[in-house]
Amino acid sequence: MKQRILIIGSGFAGMWAAVGAARLAHLQGRDDLEIAVLSPRPELRVRPRFYEANVARMTADLQPLFAALDIRFIAGSVEQLESREKALWYRNAQAEKVRITYDRLVLAGGSHLQHAGVKGMAEHAFDIDQMETAQRLEDHLAALAKQPDSTARNTVVVCGGGFTGIELATELPSRLKSLFGNETNTKVIVVERGSVIGGRYSEALREVIREASDELGVEWRLNTGVEVVDAAGVTLQDGSRIDAATVVWTAGVKASPLGDALAADRDPQGRFIVTPELRIPGHPDIYATGDMAHAKTDDVGNTALMTCQHAIQLGKFAGHNVAASLLGVDPLPYRQVNYVTCLDLGAWGAVYTEGWDQQVKLVRDEAKKLKIAITNELIYPPAADRDAAFAAADPLAKFV
């Protein structure tokens, strides 16, 4: 009877965990492992692109890849873990409750946006955290184009000045012009608690973001947050008011609640604090990866961020190590020393940095070409070809 590796989630980490496990089993000449992915749909949703228009096209079908690598797909959503019995319950596509056992479990459920309890946020604000919510924003903006011209109609407030907020805010000016007409006086305002634009980033990167914002006409409201959202706009904590038909929340994410019943240490973002092999301490049969793992990237104190860049590598290491634990192979401690960013800045271009100190290496058109290559090609699943997929899944191969 085959031993089962069950991977929860088909995002970047879950998909690469499955391919990585299949790769090691193939290298070892073993066909006695069943590698299964449990997720609502056999698709990768390209979440880093949800700030763009036409969000419905930002998926990749995983069925051809899974078929080529003999990876089983199970359509369903997890409802309950039974870690002592090495089993879980899930709701299948027919809404039936099903129990499945495993020999090893990989938690790759990703993360979700936190609304921080702001009054009116749930009723009146939008977000681009998931495909469905990004589509809701897209439909809303398209509907606004049919409404009478007004300051509120033409104004978008973006709550949060992190990478997601910046990419959305700098994308919106051209997006709004294409919807409302080039002569329309549109306005995009970023509300940020910090005292400077891009305060979490290097001085060089902050300067590029400021320059792009100025050129695109993106306004920043610093040193304040959102107090109340209503149907006609926002009231800020400094008492000021912004009339806006569109308010988008982008600040703060938390790991999936999948596995909340497990007794294990977590960080403030709800991620499991894992071993170098990505195991959850106290649960030798369970691994966490992607946005669910608080993992050290190096020996100087850096930890993986909740980004696609880290999720991909975390997935490859998790897949290798979970298979290794069943095949009698030595695990590979997760390491991802190199860190880069490539931030889209709309019609202005983009900015590419290297290192944890975010040294700016490329800007404008050169960086934009790299950004397009990353988001349109590099982060997508490999071809449904065994050799190519296994080569890409090597956790020790260079990713960027």
TrEMBL record:
Superkingdom assignment: Bacteria
Position of the signal peptide: none
Coiled coil spans: none
Ranges of residues in domain FAD/NAD(P)-binding: 4-313
Translocase keyword on record: no
Keyword Flavoprotein attached: yes
InterPro entries: FAD/NAD-bd_sf, FAD/NAD-binding_dom, NADH-Q_oxidoreductase
Keywords: FAD, Flavoprotein, Oxidoreductase
Requisite cofactors: FAD
PANTHER family in UniProt: 64 KDA MITOCHONDRIAL NADH DEHYDROGENASE (EUROFUNG) (PTHR42913:SF3), APOPTOSIS-INDUCING FACTOR 1 (PTHR42913)
Family, similarity comment: Belongs to the NADH dehydrogenase family.
Name under which the protein is recorded: FAD-dependent oxidoreductase
Organism in which the protein naturally occurs: Jeongeupia naejangsanensis
